[in-house]
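Weekly modeling sync, notes
Attendees: S.R. (lead), two postdocs, one rotation student

Agenda item 3: backlog of single-chain predictions. S.R. asked that every request posted to the team notebook include the full sequence so nobody has to chase files. The rotation student volunteered to paste the first one in as an example of the format we agreed on. Action items at the bottom.

Example entry:
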Amino acid sequence: MTLTDLGVGLAILVGIVGIIVPVLPGTVLIGAALIAWALEVQTATGWTVMGLGLALLVIGTVVKFLIPGRAMKAAVPNKTLLIGAIFAIAGFFVIPVVGLFVGFPLGVYVAERVRVGAEQAWPSTKAALKAVGVSILIELIFAVLATVTWIIGVVLVR
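Predicted structure, as returned to the notebook:
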């Protein structure tokens, strides 16, 4: 294992953390790391691993918007999600990192309470949170698959 492999592995790890804690663009970071690794090793295996890894990341990105997106649109309108996102960003600055997880549900709940009333606000908020959780899980699964592809590539190249 070379210093490049360690650097790419660290970048991929940071990308995975960025998916779980949405502070960094995790998928983009992992994709950039795969490209950097392929450029460094300059082998057919390296290019194949990069292509497969990037394809997995793209598929994961598409699936994460298609599957949970339908459930979320059925539960809450885009305006509610926008308010949730604004609260999440504000929460990030008020309570660093954890504020994202406090701000988004709070924003969705407040917006839904205004829109549909107190009794329906919590079920709508739960539906939005479930859709966001499924979205993160889908992105994480495909990122881990891309990472496993890279690990196999490192073993084959070295």
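Discussion: group reviewed the output briefly. The CA atoms of residues 95 and 118 lie 26 Å apart.
Action items: rotation student to repeat for the remaining queue; S.R. to check formatting next week.
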